[in-house]
Specification:
Radius of gyration: 24 Å
Strand content: 15-25%
Strand order of the largest sheet: 1-7-6-2-3-4-5
CATH architecture of the largest domain: Alpha-Beta Complex
CATH class of the largest domain: Alpha Beta
Helix content: 25-40%
CATH superfamily of the largest domain: Creatinase/methionine aminopeptidase superfamily
CATH topology of the largest domain: Creatine Amidinohydrolase
Number of helices: 11
Largest sheet: 7 strands, mixed
Length: 411
């Protein structure tokens, strides 16, 4: 089978609804309201863009199976759905459990409701008769069982595995998407500020009785506060690790008292209208530690210099190298074992990535994380992470209002 991708994909200029202002989106968060929904016409424009690419990809149809891609192209947020894109239009396929939801969320698109297990019959009906066509499937979304079922049902089709067709469009965020990410950042920050205040108050209390502050309790409260401030859900399982445990880049919160440690690493994010934020901060419990301040400032410098270099036409690998070289020159190269960052949107880890292996050229509209770190087994870890929008002339730190200088992070 011939493999198709969109490595040379370039998004055309599209017209979208007027963006929500920062003031409007902050007011929405305060008042517990969601942002205005993405207009139906935007989904139609997205679908039309993908359909216009079918011939370039040597496809007659594209069968979209990824729930995230289906949401991006239709607005449907439920499960168990498929989207068939062909030159004559688009059809959303699902089952009777989602009839009402589809009616509420999706307009201006053909919908085919079929029984569970009746997908082959539905496809035959929509496509019409036996035809020799090039049938594109999302290779990173289809299971082996689903593939075998389709091949058996349609021996006349040429099945073509595809990668990156929809994701190529998703890489460049529209204004409505950027507004949602801004809102998700604000929700995450408000929750973090609440938690930090509680931790600081507990630590500063003059009491003969020691009051423990447990990692798992911080996580639970943080995720509750995000929902309280308007998040539909957390972006991922929050990381809350103190002291030596912070040396685990993706550590799991445990029954540890953070007041006995020198630092607390928190990696968290919120989802608003489907879009995610991703932030990391280190709170300083015992600022007297000179090594702690030294390593913290190395990581902060690496992040600051990398962010300064972000602009269109820069390669992801070049941005990664800036931060990596600063950490390596400081003697901690072996202690920075992950990529510098990744795109974020409807999924927490999207492409492209700031890494030694990604030569993708940055474009205006991409939203990327920048998260250098130094992790030392037996001592702890420092990571600082912000969400960055690539602009026409440089970049904007969307999370610039979340404090990160060493003195600002002392409890």
């Amino acid at each position: 089978m011939k493999k198709t991708d969109l490595d040379n994909y370039t998004q055309a200029t599209l017209k979208f609804p007027k963006p929500v202002t920062q003031t409007q989106q902050r007011e929405a968060v305060v008042q517990g309201r969601s942002l205005p929904p993405i207009l139906v016409s935007v989904y139609q424009v997205r679908r039309d863009k993908i359909i216009s690419l079918l011939s370039k990809c040597y496809l007659d149809v594209l069968f979209v199976m990824s729930p995230v891609n289906i949401r991006y192209l239709t607005g449907f947020t439920g499960g168990d759905a498929y989207l068939l894109l062909r030159k004559s239009g688009a059809t959303l396929i699902s089952d009777p459990r989602y009839t009402i939801q589809i009616d509420e969320e999706c307009n201006n698109i053909d919908v085919h409701i079929c029984g569970l297990g009746d997908l082959p019959d539905a496809l035959r009906l929509i496509i019409g008769g036996k035809k020799r066509i090039k049938f594109g499937v999302e290779s990173d979304a289809i299971t082996l069982l689903e593939h075998n079922t389709l091949v058996k049902a349609f021996p006349e089709f040429e099945f073509v595995p595809t990668t990156g067709i929809v994701l190529g469009l998703r890489q460049i965020k529209e204004r409505v998407e950027i507004d949602a990410i801004r809102c998700a950042i604000d929700v995450a920050y408000k929750a973090f500020a609440d938690i930090r205040k509680k931790i600081s108050t507990t630590i500063s209390k003059k009491s003969t009785a020691h009051t423990a502050i447990i990692e798992t309790e911080i996580r639970d409260d943080l995720e509750y506060q995000m929902r309280k401030h308007g998040a539909s859900e957390k972006s991922f399982a929050s990381i809350v690790c103190s002291g030596k445990r912070a040396a685990m880049a993706h550590g799991v919160p445990a029954n540890y008292d953070i007041t006995k440690e020198q630092l607390l690493l928190i990696d968290w994010g919120a989802i608003v209208d489907g879009y995610m934020s991703d932030l990391t901060r280190v709170l300083i419990v015992k600022p007297q530690n000179k090594k702690l301040k030294q390593i913290y400032n190395i990581v902060l410098k690496a992040q600051t210099e990398a962010i300064k270099a972000i602009k269109p036409n820069k390669k992801c690998v070049e941005i990664d190298a800036i931060a990596r070289n600063i950490i390596s020159d400081s003697g901690y190269g072996k202690n920075f074992g992950h990529g510098l960052g990744h795109a974020v949107g409807l999924e927490i880890h999207e492409s492209p990535r700031f890494s030694v292996n990604d030569s993708t050229v940055l474009k205006a509209g991409m939203v990327m994380t920048v998260e250098p770190g130094i992790y030392i087994e037996g001592w702890g870890g420092i990571r600082i992470e912000d969400d960055i929008l690539v602009t026409k002339n440089g970049c904007e730190v969307l999370s610039s209002h979340v404090p990160k200088n060493f003195d600002e992070c002392i409890l």
